[in-house]
């Protein structure tokens, strides 16, 4: 029942999966078949408060900080080439354990060293992000990165946000210049 | 006319194309070899399942007139005339390629371009030149593909292996991906740094260097070198009907040639069981011999006293299981305290099985790591270049 999202699209988790407790956000892409530097895509997460920014640097979950302080959000680790089947990087979110001060969970995807390697999402085959209901392994939604965002190198992909007592999921697909450091600063991280 | 850059994609309708279009190719090189231009009409998996849709100098049109190679037109040297509605449902992607026959690489290319022409008018152009490329001898220039609707892509990616690598990419032997390894457990949390560190150092090009300073005040941090690789042969069988048994897994050997500041020198490698020593000179040791790449952590070399070394040359040798480094995705990771340096083995030479990956040199207390990725036929050849001066005899594991 997966919804294939395009830029700006959204999905109501309440309608799709009532009582949803745990999701897995998976990033996958094909390892480079042509010759040249590998495509190293990185998934990152910003746990944002009401201000729309992180409350502290520990709320920035990425390849150098794999776990939120209370463990409700966990990143499975850095895949530097896309080698391997299935999701190459994943982030587990236990929605019921996310602290109350977190109003939205923002997911970003960036290409490591995009400038020096002269790469963008359009060059990567089958780069996509998908949201899986971990309670029953159903794929809820997917967003394919390379069609709509071919010229981008860093992007806010989507966000999970609270609405009253529910969690909703919105696809953003908004590109940013300046890579992960610019994105992180945008969300209030100290670099 | 819309100017496209590498990686750019869009819908054909966005550039005014509905069904018929011409692809005009202007490619020139100062390299000396001749250039073969082709169009591969492949299926949704990227494979040439119907070779009537491989349009090239010996087969200038595809069935039904869907693709036709018409020669010089629109001021370009070669032109393909397309009628997308005439393609069979199985052909979903048309990739326009150029391969060099003879001397030279894509690095020698003059200013070249692919233009999309509709009704005699140029509507889009992807311009490229030698400076965009390196050692590739075959290039996928442009693609017209179907995904919900017809789209275009300025590809600009190629293969050092030339036409044969290109053919393989479109449906020669497909290396099956090894089963996905189980997700690695999150490492134990270290004390958080005062500021968030985005640093990952990758030595991508030959000659790239990274310098780490040995800790001052008595504490010397070890240098941990890890070599890992994939097994693209997992599950593959050889022989008639696959009855010849499984293809041997690639066995890469990590090793090093070293010279201490005292002048003492030696070699550490699995061949000859020279695993080194933790407790005595040279304080360099190898943890194990991984014969298949199946071990999730590969092979590890530790330099415990980098302050005592003069120069270490780290190498990898293909011992068996694959003819060359090309499809094993070899990668070296060097850890020293908090810093991590990643060296991909990404420019393999299919003719050689000894690769000097990097040198680690002690320059007055600063450790300088330089990516080499140079290929040799054997240890003796490499020694000739790095000047250790060993006497070499043949051995076997």
Strand order of the largest sheet of chain B: 1-10-9-3-7-6
Tell me the major beta sheet of chain B. 6 strands, mixed
Query: From the 3D coordinates, which CATH architecture of the largest domain in chain B would you assign?
Result: Sandwich
CATH superfamily (homologous) name of chain A: sav2460 like domains
**Model regions low in confidence, pLDDT < 50 over at least 5 residues of chain A:** none
State the secondary-structure class of chain B.
mainly beta
What Rg of chain B do the Cα atoms give? 25 Å
Shape of chain B: elongated
Tell me what the CATH architecture of chain A is.
Sandwich
**Strand residue percentage of chain B:** 35-45%
Account of the protein in words:
The complex is a heterodimer of chains A (191) and B (397). By secondary structure, chain A is mainly β. Chain A has a single domain (3-186), classed as Lipoxygenase-1. Chain A has helices spanning 13-16, 114-117, 145-148, 179-186, and strands at 3-5, 10-11, 22-28, 41-48, 60-61, 73-75, 89-94, 104-111, 128-133, 138-144, 154-163, 166-175. In chain A, the strands form 2 sheets. In chain A, strands 1-10-9-3-7-6 form a 6-stranded mixed sheet. In chain A, a hairpin with a 2-residue loop joins strand 11 and strand 12. The model of chain A has no long low-confidence stretch (mean pLDDT 89). By secondary structure, chain B is mostly beta strands. Chain B folds into 2 domains: 2-169, Sandwich (Lipoxygenase-1), CATH 2.60.60.30; 201-386, Lipoxygenase-1, CATH 2.60.60.30. Chain B is 4% helix and 40% strand. Chain B contains 2 helices and 24 strands. Chain B has helices at 162-169, 379-386, and strands at residues 2-4, 9-11, 20-26, 34-42, 54-55, 67-69, 78-83, 93-101, 112-118, 121-128, 138-147, 149-159, 201-202, 209-213, 223-228, 251-260, 265-268, 284-286, 299-303, 309-320, 331-336, 339-344, 354-363, 366-376. In chain B, the strands form 4 sheets. Chain B has a 6-stranded mixed sheet with strand order 1-10-9-3-7-6, with no helix packed on it. In chain B, strands 2-12-11-8-4-5 form a 6-stranded antiparallel sheet. Chain B has a 6-stranded mixed sheet with strand order 13-22-21-15-19-18, with no helix packed on it. The longest helix of chain B is centred in the middle third of the chain and has 8 residues, at 162-169. In chain B, 39% of the residues are buried. Chains A and B meet through helix 4 of A and strand 12 of B.
